């Protein structure tokens, strides 16, 4: 997630280069924190408990595809069980709550489960669904107080329960015998195996406790012929006859058994504390020692899923949260690891690329993780006795790498590409404290290869490597590993612990950084016995140096420090600071140089990209929740077409996550170019549709492009009657949802509220409430309609209270017939009444303007026959079935003498006839006036003006423009221009406007 674009324009450069952009290509996040696991019937999904949720892992991709539960609301998961068909998951939480989750819904977040019950006071310790098809809906739950309950998950009712006195229930199973008898079998931590037969009629219960094991019973498996197999931590397994309740056979395994699966009726695979997968023949009771395989950690669960060729595929879950896919061969009783995935790595300490596909990860563990970036596979490499701290790979080999550990040793490893096996070639010892940094030589030292290590003991050691050893196979590696290598030279490099080292590509220069705040430069002298010679040092940092790196050209050295600064040095004979990079607000922990780009991470989890030329931060990414401890850049590789692939970097942090980032700069530039071309094409299409008045198509295109301003422009070209309704009726459901969302924003502005209310009215009258509430995004904007609609209604009510004044003016002027009382309007249709009132209001303004002009002209010397009143007709409202529709403006009025009569009874103003008396009417193009905002959604209109073109006369030449009605879109039409100019303007309606505004606000 890009949280800050600190990219700035470099004024020193004449051409602006696009800043580099990275995005996460792959995430390796923890998804399993220990506890219960389950496998889907097809073996493609793995259910893992992770804190308060259950994560569903896609085994093919190695990524989490679904999360069951909510981290914020639920308590921690204690146990869960998956039904046989994989459709229902029963989850028990530590707050004694049990929930049933329906897994049929294919959603990323599954957050609503059915509550089965409020559990008893004891905690759920184990649970299991019935494996027989008739018992698939039955759930057996064992509690820590020794009680067992049987539940029907379909009816969500408890069928029965009982409580024993033999301790905590550790394992449960529900069996159906050959005589159709159902039994609940459970084991306890005292070694008892209990069988409980619950009668369907509820009259009697049959319970029996069998004694053989002396420790916790961990496994209960149903066998053929009504036999039962149990395994315990007392290193034994027992075979029982379920009907007769008799012990038929017992076998000693010499290992505490934690889990087991039955491959055939006479072959059992089990695992225990040693982490070894072993086989036992149930007929002979012999262990097949030659066929065992070690997983290096206690095995806590086995899951048998499907057949594969001559064997079976099963999954093994270990105590260190790793999941293995195993193939068990039935013919030769062999087992092989097909794949493994790490469920929880812990805090990441170091990352390094072995190749463009393989990523090495060191965590707070003595095992190294080797990730396949494409498939997500994780291979564990063991050898160190303590936590691995550092990794170094070779620039001339994709098979060799070195690790350093807290055990004071460094190990040289080699990967076998054909088998994927990793073997240790040699162990390098001599440090008395933890090895903090290792560096393998580059290809220029292939003749005399060497290895450099640094430690907390303040020393730097250089080891000479044998070329024969580097090219050895597994057999030779075993012989070389017997003796530890000794250092060719040891140097006390700093006064405090050495934190980091770096080796140049060509000039054999070594840089070291320490907690003593210094950076030192060394010369490496190669030969049969390698040596180190000091060159220069720098003490510019204010705190300990955390990392140093050379540029590929060898002429530059970058350093990071706890003082939140990065420094760039020149290494031509001495260390000269060229530039300081400021931008981090916390200690910088790691850095890397990739061409002309500097990459750094800090203790706040931020990843920053810097330009070496300008020294400016180009991008900042919030990479990790905690400190970012690890950073690595993949080696450049060629694509099939011959060009270099985009850069890839990896980061790791205290949030136990490892992220792989990919350079997407070229892709983003291409996408931006394509988007610009698309935008131009859509703009041209919209312009063509508007030009040809194809408004419905223009509206649909504007909604498809998510352009609310364009949609508003198109809608304002329509009338609010049939044209708007016909256009809305042709919209699809998703387009209508988008339009309704835009209308909620338009409703907040009184200028467009009438249009928004018309759209809302159409939606409410054409769709049922159930249909509207089923729209996905309706909840995001529906509540926004209520407050502004109430505000608009209050404003209309205020106008209605002021209407008696208009009635009084009209009746006093005696120019209109008696109108119906305003109190009778607006009861059935408030919107229609509002438009009616507004038309009356407009007519009153016209009459007042005419009378004011007459009074002004009567004081002048203009002849009456030369006076003219200029009025521009406009479209007006006419009632229709769907509300109001717009009628076109009347024909041009003018050219009449004082005594002549017009050819029609009146000119329409705002939809109401106004008689023309003694006026000579002539059309004119009105002067445009700037409009801002008032209570009608218009803004401060300029007062109407009186213009005398000739000497003063009783009736002056006036230009009267009626106030703009915002809900009437459309043009007024072109009219002819006057033959004279406008010289002066006299305000005539300012007093009335002030009165109107005053009453509107009261």
Summarize the structure.
With 1002 residues, the protein is α+β, with helices and mostly antiparallel strands. The chain is built from 13 helices and 67 strands.
What does this structure look like?
WD repeats lie at residues 381-416, 491-524, 538-572. Keywords: Nucleus, Repeat, WD repeat. The protein is α+β, with helices and mostly antiparallel strands. Helices cover 17% and strands 39% of the residues. A hairpin with a 2-residue loop joins strand 60 and strand 61 (883-887). The radius of gyration is 42 Å and the shape is flat. The two termini are 52 Å apart.
Write the layout of secondary structure elements.
Layout: E1 2-4, E2 22-28, E3 37-39, E4 45-50, E5 53-58, E6 63-68, E7 77-82, E8 88-93, E9 97-102, E10 109-110, E11 114-118, E12 124-129, E13 138-143, E14 147-152, E15 157-163, E16 169-176, E17 182-188, E18 192-198, E19 205-211, E20 217-222, E21 227-232, E22 236-241, E23 246-252, E24 257-264, E25 267-272, E26 276-281, E27 287-294, E28 299-308, E29 311-318, E30 322-329, E31 334-342, E32 348-353, E33 358-363, E34 367-372, E35 378-382, E36 388-393, E37 400-405, E38 410-415, E39 422-428, E40 435-440, E41 450-455, E42 459-464, H1 467-470, H2 474-480, E43 489-492, E44 498-503, E45 509-514, E46 519-525, E47 531-538, E48 545-550, E49 556-561, E50 565-570, E51 576-582, E52 588-594, E53 597-602, E54 606-611, E55 617-622, E56 628-633, E57 648-653, E58 658-663, H3 665-691, H4 695-704, H5 708-716, H6 722-729, H7 733-746, H8 753-766, H9 769-773, H10 778-781, H11 785-813, H12 830-858, E59 869-871, E60 876-880, E61 883-887, E62 906-909, E63 912-915, E64 921-922, E65 945-946, E66 958-960, E67 986-987, H13 990-1001
Helix pairs in contact: 3-4, 4-5, 7-8, 11-12
Subcellular location: Nucleus, Nucleolus
Protein name: Transducin beta-like protein 3
WD repeats: 381-416, 491-524, 538-572
């Amino acid at each position: 997630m890009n949280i800050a674009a600190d990219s700035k324009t470099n004024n020193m450069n004449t051409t602006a280069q696009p800043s580099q952009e990275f995005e996460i290509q792959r995430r390796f996040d923890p998804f399993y924190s220990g506890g219960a696991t389950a496998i889907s019937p097809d073996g493609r999904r793995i259910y893992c408990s992770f804190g308060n949720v259950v994560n569903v892992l896609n085994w093919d991709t190695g990524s989490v595809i679904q999360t069951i539960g909510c981290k914020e609301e639920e308590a921690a998961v204690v146990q869960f069980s998956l039904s046989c068909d994989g459709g229902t998951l029963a989850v028990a939480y530590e707050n004694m709550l049990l929930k049933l989750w329906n897994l049929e819904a294919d959603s990323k977040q599954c957050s609503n489960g059915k509550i089965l019950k409020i559990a008893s006071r004891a905690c759920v310790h184990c649970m299991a669904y019935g494996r027989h098809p008739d018992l698939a809906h039955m759930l057996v739950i064992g509690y820590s107080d020794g009680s067992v309950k049987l539940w029907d998950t379909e009816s969500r009712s408890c069928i029965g329960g009982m409580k024993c006195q033999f301790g905590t229930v550790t394992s449960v199973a529900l069996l159906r015998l050959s005589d159709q008898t159902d039994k609940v079998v459970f084991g306890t931590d005292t070694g008892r195996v209990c069988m409980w037969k619950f009668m369907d009629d509820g009259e009697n219960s049959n319970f029996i406790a069998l004694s053989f094991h002396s420790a916790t019973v961990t496994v209960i498996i149903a066998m053929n012929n009504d036999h039962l197999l149990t395994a315990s931590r007392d290193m034994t397994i027992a075979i029982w006859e379920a009907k007769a309740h008799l012990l038929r056979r017992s076998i000693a395994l010499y290992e505490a058994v934690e889990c087991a699966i039955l491959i055939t009726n006479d072959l059992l695979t089990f695992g225990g504390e040693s982490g070894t997968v072993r086989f036992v023949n149930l007929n002979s009771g012999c262990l097949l020692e030659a066929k065992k395989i070690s997983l290096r950690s206690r095995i806590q669960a086995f899951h048998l899923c499907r057949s594969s060729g001559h064997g079976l595929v099963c999954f093994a879950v270990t105590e260190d949260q790793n999941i293995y896919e195993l193939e068990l061969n039935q013919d030769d009783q062999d087992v092989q690891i097909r794949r493994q995935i790490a469920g929880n790595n812990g805090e990441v300490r170091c990352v390094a690329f072995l190749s463009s596909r393989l990523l090495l990860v060191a965590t707070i563990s003595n095992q190294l993780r080797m990730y396949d970036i494409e498939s997500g596979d994780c291979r564990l490499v063991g050898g160190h006795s303590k936590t691995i701290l550092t990794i170094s790979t070779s620039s001339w080999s994709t098979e060799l790498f070195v690790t350093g550990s807290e055990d004071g040793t460094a190990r040289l490893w080699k990967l076998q590409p054909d088998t994927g096996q990793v073997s240790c070639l040699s162990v390098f010892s001599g440090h008395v404290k933890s090895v903090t940094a290792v560096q393998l030589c580059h290809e220029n030292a292939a003749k005399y290869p060497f290895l450099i290590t640094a430690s907390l003991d303040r020393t730097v050691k250089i080891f000479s490597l044998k070329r024969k050893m580097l090219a050895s196979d597994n057999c030779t590696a075993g012989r070389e590993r017997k003796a530890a290598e000794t250092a060719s030279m040891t140097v006390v490099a700093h006064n405090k612990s050495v934190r980091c080292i770096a080796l140049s590509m060509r000039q054999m220069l070594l840089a070291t950084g320490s907690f003593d705040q210094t950076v030192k430069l060394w010369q490496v002298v190669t030969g049969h016995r390698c040596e180190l010679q000091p060159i220069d040092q720098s003490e510019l940092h204010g705190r300990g140096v955390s990392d140093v790196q050379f540029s590929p050209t060898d002429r530059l050295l970058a350093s990071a420090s706890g003082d939140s600064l990065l420094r760039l040095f020149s290494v031509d004979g001495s260390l000269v600071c060229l530039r300081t990079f400021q931008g981090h607000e916390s200690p910088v922990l790691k850095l890397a140089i990739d061409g002309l780009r500097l990459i750094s991470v800090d203790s706040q989890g931020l990843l920053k990209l810097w330009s070496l030329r300008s020294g400016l931060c180009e991008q900042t990414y919030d990479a990790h929740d905690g400190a970012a401890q690890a950073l690595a850049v993949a080696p450049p590789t060629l694509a099939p077409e011959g060009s270099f692939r985009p850069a890839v970097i990896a980061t790791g942090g205290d949030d136990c996550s490892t992220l792989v980032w990919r350079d997407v700069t070229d892709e983003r530039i291409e996408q931006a170019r394509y988007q610009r071309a698309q935008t131009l094409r859509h703009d041209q299409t919209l312009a063509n549709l508007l030009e040809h008045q194809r408004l419905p198509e223009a509206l649909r295109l504007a909604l498809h492009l998510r352009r609310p301003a364009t949609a508003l422009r198109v809608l304002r070209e329509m009338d609010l009657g049939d044209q708007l309704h016909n256009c809305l009726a042709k919209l699809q459901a998703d387009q209508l949802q988008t339009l309704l969302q835009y209308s909620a924003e338009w409703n907040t502005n009184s200028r467009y509220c009438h249009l928004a209310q018309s759209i809302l009215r159409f939606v409410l009258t054409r769709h049922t409430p159930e249909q509207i509430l089923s729209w996905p995004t309706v909840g995001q904007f529906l509540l926004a309609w209520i407050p502004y609609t109430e505000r608009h209604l209050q404003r209309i009510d205020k106008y209605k209270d002021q209407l008696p004044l208009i009635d009084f003016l009209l009746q006093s002027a005696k120019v209109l017939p008696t109108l119906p009382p305003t109190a009778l309007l607006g009861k059935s249709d408030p919107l229609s009444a509002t438009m009616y009132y507004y038309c009356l209001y407009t007519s009153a303004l016209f009459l007042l303007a005419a009378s004011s002009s007459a009074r002004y002209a009567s004081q002048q010397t203009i002849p009456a026959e030369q006076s003219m009143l200029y009025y521009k007709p406009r479209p007006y409202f006419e009632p229709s079935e769907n509300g109001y529709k717009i009628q076109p403006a009347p024909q041009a009025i003018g050219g009449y003498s004082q005594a002549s009569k017009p050819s029609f009874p009146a000119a329409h103003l705002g939809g109401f006839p106004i008689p023309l008396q003694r006026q000579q009417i002539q059309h004119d193009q009105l002067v445009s006036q700037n409009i801002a905002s008032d209570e009608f959604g218009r803004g401060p209109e300029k007062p109407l003006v009186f213009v005398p073109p000739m000497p003063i006369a009783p009736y002056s030449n006036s230009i009267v423009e009626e106030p703009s009605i915002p809900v009437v879109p459309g043009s007024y039409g072109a009219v002819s221009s006057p033959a004279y100019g406008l010289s002066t303007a006299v305000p005539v309606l300012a007093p009335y406007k002030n009165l109107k505004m005053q009453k509107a606000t009261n």
